[in-house]
Design a protein that fits this description.
The protein contains 7 helices and 3 strands, in the order ααβααββααα. The chain has 117 residues and is mainly alpha-helical.
Length: 117
């Protein structure tokens, strides 16, 4: 059970799992969706598969990934919605945004202000 929570401790893996809550996707589709290189996403998927959070289906030369079952889907949704409550303001799922934007979309880099003296 600890392994499942360890998998949820990585932002890229949460982005991948969140992307799979609605439908299956290939590695390249997932990589584009989460904004990470395909080899990196593939390594994360291997870990998620070993933890039995995702499963695969082969179609020709393409492998499609999906969540292992409805329990995993509910776990991912609950984890993301709970994380939204930790932030300021009204959580996105209460506003009808459909999910945690910080997970679904990579945040833009922040710039630090420099003080001029």
């Amino acid at each position: 059970m600890v392994e499942v929570f360890r998998m949820l401790a990585d932002a890229t893996r949460v982005q991948v799992l969140w992307s799979l809550t609605d439908h299956e996707m290939s590695v390249n589709e997932l990589a584009e969706h989460v904004g990470k290189p395909a080899p990196s996403v593939s390594q994360h998927l291997a870990k998620l598969r070993m933890a039995r959070l995702v499963r695969t289906r082969r179609e020709g030369t393409t492998i499609f990934y999906s969540l292992e079952n409805d329990h995993v889907r509910q776990l991912v949704i609950d984890a993301v919605f709970n994380a939204e409550h930790a932030g300021p303001g009204v959580p996105g799922h209460h506003r009808g945004d459909g999910g945690l934007k910080a997970v679904a979309e990579p945040s833009p880099p922040t710039r630090q202000r420099t003080s001029s003296r």
